Amino acid sequence: MTNNIKAQNKNLLEKITGYKQFGLVIGLIILLVFAYFLTPSMFTGGAIISMLKNNSVYAILAVGMMFVLLTGGIDLSVASTLGMTGVITSMSMSSNPQVPAFVWVVVSLVIGSICGLINGFLIGKLKMIPLIATLGTMYIYRGFAYLISGGNWLFPHKFTAGYIAYAQGDILGIPNITWIAILIFIAAAIFLSVTKPGRRIYAIGTNADSSHVAGIKVGNIKILAYTLSGMLAGLAGMLYTANYAICYYGMADGFELMAIAICILGGVSIIGGRGTVDGVVIGVIMMSIIAFFIGLLPGLSVWQDAIQGAIIIIAVAINIFTGRLSIKNALKERSSLI
Amino acid sequence: MNNNTQTGHLTVKNEFKLSKFLVKWEMILVYLLVLLNVVLIATRSNLYFTPGTVSSIIQSGMDLSFMVLGMIFILMLGDIDVSIASIMVLSGMVIGLLMDAGVNMMVAVLCGILAGGLCGLINGILVAKIKMPAVIVTIATSLLFRGIVKIVLDVNVLKNFPGWFVTLAWTNVFGIPLSLICFTIVAVLFGIILHRSKFGRQLYMIGNSQVVSKYSGIRVDFIKICVFVIMGLMSGVAAIFFIGRMGGGLSSTMAKGYEMDVIAICVLGGISTNGGKGKLYGPYIATLIMAFLIYTMGMLEVDANTRKIFTGIILIVAVLIPYVNRGLLADIKLKLLYADSKNIEAVNLRCQSEVSTLKAKIRKCRKDTLLSNEEKSAKIKGYEVKIESAKKKCEQASKSLKEEIQAERLKTKKKLAK
Amino acid sequence: MNDNMLELKDIVKTFGGVTALNGVQFQLKKGEIHALMGENGAGKSTFIKVITGVHQPDSGIMLLEGEKVVFHSTLDSQKLGIAAIYQHVTSFPDLTVTENIFMGQELTTKLGIYRWKEMRRKAKDLISVLSEDIDVTKPMISLSVAQQQLVEIAKALSRDARILIMDEPTASLTRHECEELYRIVEKLRDDGVSIILITHKFEDMYRLASRVTVFRDANYIGTWNVDGISNAKLIQAMVGRELNQMYPQKTAKIGDVVLEVDGISKEGYFKDVTFDVRKGEILALTGLVGSSRTEVCQTLFGIMQPDSGKIKLNGKEIFLSSPLDALNHGIGLLPEDRQLQGLIYELPIFQNVTAPVLNNYTKYSLLDEKKEMNKAIQLCEKIELKAKDIADVPSALSGGNQQKVVFAKLLNCDLKVLILDEPTKGIDIGAKSSIYEIINELAASGYAIIMVSSEMPEVLGIADRIVVMKSGRVTGRFHAKDTNQEEILAATLMKREEMINEEVHA
Prior knowledge:
heterotrimer, A: mainly alpha, 2 strands, about 75% helix, C: Rossmann fold
């Protein structure tokens, strides 16, 4: 017969092992087992709540980063966008405490989108290399954060209750900020799986030339991806300040690396075209467990950066090796024709 | 300055066209530098002419100057390294710790620089051998290296550095900053390597086409690793000047963001981030420009953090200019240099620009909603006919030019034969 | 009056001095399957690119259903119902079949949300006509090559293609899959689609086409009814030309075996390749595109390493780990694609020439540019390179002269074996003969030369011996003076089931 893979009636076991992120889930389970034995305190209610609170911001940034990575690019400016937007919303809020907090949410989305749009324009329209473009804007936005804040810090007493509630309040015991992150995950999953622009992001990440020939405006899709990344970073800015009830121009320094690390851990490919929301969810959970380890074990907090760096290197190396394996397999298939 | 090596009909012309040289990117940088100085003199002449101001300005920019030299090689290959600030701090830490432990001063310094080289080696192997993208790798190693410093130093500050570090960073020799002299010497060395040595030639080749370089028997991987090691060593050297500039202290949180400044300086200096383009003296001048720019901004009471905005803008604009310029340059070239020239290239350029304006007219015409279809096709046909005739003219013109050149060649051959 | 779906008249297309199409004609009747045949380099692929809008012809007209059309991009031709299916399908391997079919024209609600159910249904309808086995929800990469091709056809149909161009559709198919494809193509014709079929396989033509057109050397040779022409006549049309005085007299003295290739195999590319080359000899390596000749060359140059088999130089087994290794052993490669692999266009000519042996021009590690330039001038004059300035960039030269620069580069090294991969590709007639001179002289001065070529007369005119490959295997070995074009052509088309190895005794 022909060498095709027939669509069989899969039994449950095959369905489970065929699941794209199966490997990641196994990794997560192993990690959880380790955690249970090493730091059982992680599984208490208080610890979980605090983990949720601290990592929701990373999660939101990671979703935006995922869109950009899927197109084969990178966005180093998300942390600066977060900082600048956070400064703007917190400062505006504290000078206008009578304005309903919801307004600031909208403002953060708008400002973030503008930041992202600028990136998108540089990369999608002017065809700049994403690395350099976002490196530049990272600097620019951070500078503006300083300028607008005048170097001043905002302390908790300056924050209105309504504002803080967006992050710190809770429903059914889960912090609001986490609910927002969950909603964003769901929205992103829907966007990437059933909408036209979402699917086209995958298309251009996989094969920009074919996409172009098929009539897709590659530049516009890239602009969309970076705008979304900026928008989410902006929202993260407002939520970060609400969560910690603090605001200063240098906040969230290095968060872009966290976002990248989470995505890579979550199976998103750096060259584009591959990656799913559920993978990123797993990535966030893994990263938060690792961060918890480090934070808990005495004297280990200084190791955080070094470990993060090492994790990224290992994750990327694994990413590359699995990519090479699939090429080898494809060649094996071709051999049958020779 | 006319160098004509004549052998048969193949000649080598090394004409030095003054007009072309003066509009080169690097010369524009010189003008910029001069402009900055003029602005300074004009607005703060009292400060400017106070002895020591100009040299202080220069000195403040010399610590990252060494890293700029290393980054030139890296960018020339088409790669990037954002871990340099972390390597610098790590090298500094190694020097400081060894000195604290009582190790001989020169040995400690040497070890620090070697430590930087080791970091560069790690980067190089990950990028060249394992083929990981340089972006992500160096982002990760920047975390890793600085993380190591954090682990070792925690919140402590190293203070036990020899006094000559500060002297090196801040003294003058006959009014010229010592650090500038060091930078210039090393820059000349790098310049010789880049523009005159086999290694430098290979850098240009790899930067333009890795594939062709490989097919020509060049050891691409080895050279990549070398370049990253050099970068690491340079970061180690920079550590000395950095510590000196900071007054003899080092902590784990210092020098954050230096890598951006270094890359911005290189890009401003005309080094392309795609690789294979640029000359060494561009970033040399750009380093000075940056030092003056920082000072000028400081004068305008622009904070170090706000300064980031300008560095970012410079980076983006400097990268974009070559792109925007191509079309503009072609037009200017056409009008100034080739107006009457008997040159096949000129003929072609002129024809091309005619054709593209006509094509643009066709496009515009198509989009025009006010015209009817018949009018449109009539117009378009008219343009197309014009394009045809322009192309034909071009062909004939270049043909006759070619014949002229042939005839002249024959004449010279005959003359030589006599 | 005119039942021609597509008509092309007097199409001329040149690329920088090389004529790819020299006033060719073509008519495609409504609802017919029309085969287009010819050797590699005859102009078929350029022709297809003109039809689909990738290239615009220098002159000539194209009529679609009697009306003149001018395409400026592939989108234009797609909108008017022309679709092309090529040999190597890439598209979007990780996306599903449905998405591959609909990408660019997806069915969505007003909000932009995919109407999955509807798309899947439509995709299924399109695909089930072609094949029962394909699940439209699976990613493309899980399908076989044959199935992927069917998805491409479905994609074309989804865009209401009325003209379908198929480029070597049966190249990678098994016997059974071929039959399936024939059935489908016939059904398409019955449904009113007009098809241009490019193929090397006579059985494809006999089975499907009603008429066949032959191109040769960028010229239109003729159109015949498939019923009214014989194999022999067709081959003669494709191949027959006078072996003119283009090929220089061979004066080389053939010596001992220099390079021996013994049963090398590389998974996914070639299997059990064996041949040898002697000093002063020119060995032609011929076959169709896709026969993996270039990969064999790359293996001999150290870019790839064989999974098994031996390579022997002057009797001693060698292992080539990199091009540098190969050059050090005395093996050099003139690559197939000079733009991607042969020359660096941003650097001056002389720097390209000295690239592999920079050590020769260094004194205390510093380069002596004058020495480089002089050597470059010397080498270029030897091969009669026409260039004004050795410090110019290669893009200032014609194709033929650019190739000569690559030759100069190789001559600069101390080599025993030269591997030339399609040395005259994309070069006009005038320059070709001068390159043949060079190759001949190189053989005479003692190089052992392996030349990859797809042009029959060139192969017969230049080579001493000929090795034919098909789909990664050696299918024939001949002495140039003992064979003819038909015999070689037969070996290039050999079906997998019929592969024979002929031992040629020296």
